[in-house]
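new request in #modeling-help
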Amino acid sequence: MATRKDDHRPDPPTDSTDEQKTDRYQVSRRGFLKGVGGGAVTAAVVKPTAAKAQEMMPKGVSAASITLNVNGETRVVPNVEARATLLDVLRNRLDLTGAKPVCQRASCGGCTVMVDGKTGYSCSMLAMDTEGRHITSVEGLAKGDTLHPVQEAFVEHDALMCGFCTPGFVVSVASLLEHNQDPSLDEIKHAISGNICRCGTYTRIFEAAQTAAKKMRGGM
Amino acid sequence: MAIPWKPASQMTHITKNTTRLDGVVKVTGKAKYAYDMLPDKCLIGRFVTCPHPNARRLSIDTSAAKALPGVKAVWVEGRDIYRFSGDFVAAVAAISDDVADDAVTLIADSITWETLPFVVREDDARQPGAPGAHGGDRSNVREATNENEGDVDAAFADAQAVIEGTWSTQVQTHTSLEPHGMVCEWNDAQDAITVWASTQGVFSVREGIAQAVGLDESKVTVLCDYMGGGFGSKFGSRTEGNVCALLAKDAKQAVKLLLTRKQEQTNTGNRPSSNQWIKAAAKDGKLTAFQTNAFGTGGITGGAGFPTPYLYSVPNRRVKRDDVFINAGNQAAMRAPGHPQGSFAMEGVMDELAYKLGADRIEFRINNDPNATRRAQFRDLAERLDWKNVPKEMNADKGTVKRGWGVGAATWGGGGGGTQAEMDIHQDGSVVVRCGTQDIGTGTRTVVAVVAAEQLSLPIDAIQVNIGNTNFPPSGGSGGSTTCASVAPAIKVTADNALFALFERVADAFDTSPDNLEAFNGSIRTKDDPSNSMSWKDACALLGAEQVSVRGQHEGGLSSSGTAAVCGVELTVDTETGFVRVERAYLIQEAGLIINMLTVESQIIGAVIQGISYALYEDRIMDRMLGHQVNPNMEFYKVLGAPDMPHIEPIMWMTEESLARGVIGIGEPPVVPVAGAVANAVRHACGARVYDLPITPWKVLAALEGANA
């Protein structure tokens, strides 16, 4: 999985089978940057032309029906190409457009979702690899009309302006608070260090995270 | 003249904190931006770009792309000369992004190019014999300004302090998170087009699209509910919008064409660079002479102007400034165009002269600033920075991590006009406002509700706001910090008109004249007898099925132009690593009558962050050998992130005189003074001046080496 380097949770212990399954795509942001060093710049998920894709594709892998668990619902998505990213499928097949394509290569956090409770860049995960995992996008945080405490605090503190980066930040902060309900300012900064906002809402996001943490601890 | 705003002390919503109307849809991911629209059977558009910094297209063959299953339309740029790497050459619309990508590759492979000599750095472009960015004999240098005032030479001869230096600033890219582009849906039955645009001006998009596809403006509808940042770069339909519309017309269906991140960084504009040799002099605490030879590049189209000596008064001036052309994407307006460049240099000049004169750096500014508001702001800033305890001398800390303080100032015009709006009041009490303006993240949608609720004496959530649509009454583009000062007065006048129209319809029920009615706290009552009152709902019920529906427009006296700001920063410089850490930043901003305190403070915080980012990190880097931008992305074009955040205090200048000026937009000015203040604080901390933005660790170390040599 394209787990973010700023994820605040230690990697869970994995058995060897699980490790084999995920190893191919264990791309941390740091590892990714190392990979593009020396001036060679490639997209995180290389999209070959149709002809080349045919040559490169292992036999038996082409467009297929996949089953995703998104926001607690089982969604069957037919005809997903092997090269489709999770972000593509969420946005273009499931009409979940909260996660945004911004940098398109795992450096800005606009596409952040949770996979099995860990934040990751959906622009750099293949949709097929997320079968059988629990995917939470920003749309899955509110319970009906009741906002998640993080969402409520973002609105209250005006922790957003144009709003394009906001879903990514909301997911990052929600993920942090799921595991640490009393984060220090530095822990908050670390948890969102893989998200970029251009309007400049960071300091208000810090405030929102602190307010939400307090709410979730039952302090207000 | 309009009925004036009521006194701030009597206001319920205006000047207070109101959370964003669209906050909930933005935090839940439900807000649909242009990039999120995917109408039925929507095609995906993609550009073919020029792979050379200066080239002639000798041939192009789109037949293979057209033959590719799933390709529905192809556009080819008419001209054969391309002057920067990344320029748009052709475009396709196809049934999926993968097919579109494949078609782009086929077209790109079909083109034969004649590469031409190029130049991508302004220093190189100014050399004799440099390749012409425009080809042929056309010079790369164009004189833009040549002004003389007073007697500069005499003033230098007579001065007490003279300083000289060359300040320079980098090219900054807007780096909007939502790329430029549109979704255009062609309606074949009606020969009409609907456009979802990521834009700062829906009406300017309508004008451009109508011309591009040859339709009457009445056949073009442009919508923009939400947009992911523009900062000055998203006006008009632009090439990408026109091409999207042409592809949609050609394919007779919807086309979605948003730029890739690389295209966004290279093709959508930037803040031009500057290089400013300056000599300046002072005597008896006053600036006496200012001379500059400067240049900057706005890329291939020029337009790199910036003001110096900026906001300070200097009687004797000689200002010469050139535009330099290079083979790079052209500039576009960016948050206070020109001002940060001018301010960065001029604030450095002020500090250097103050040090040389042995003067207090803030007092020296107050002595030379013609603006009374800013002089008062500087005194306030001195209090907040505890200036009397800030060391006068540079390099006061003995340790390796040294602390410094710096200040800067800004001026801006702004002002309002032009906007119209309409309001309906229904028999069920519901209130609907329509205004064609757009919300670029500044909170314009919320401004509309705040003003309407204030004038009607209703809660904010009683107002339904509809904006971002060219079928609504017209409003100008969101640029020049004019939106709030244009929209808020128009909404006030419209609400006043609607209220009076309501009074005319219901006065009989109060047994009085319309003039004797007023709205008060969710009710309508007679002015002379407050007990003769009816709830808003009951009063509106008297309307019956025909709602009140009126228009209004911006009127004079409700807004002003001209605003002042000052900035102070406290930072540390690690003299072993060269790392600069901004710890605190204060920004004092005049904004006249503040409509929404919460969102105006957000804008100021955001501007300070962008200013620090400009000062320390951002830099468009061109490869002089290959002619391409090295960092057209978001990992190597570095913007300030969460770990770098200082404590930021936005301070609104709320004097009675200022409030009485009416609404003044402030989107731009708070970004202006930050870089100058940061550079001055670095100099104050460690004694080394970094003349060149961004202030990277190696430049700090190099400057320290120079200072200690």
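bot summary: Chain B touches chain A through 59 residues (CB under 8 Å).
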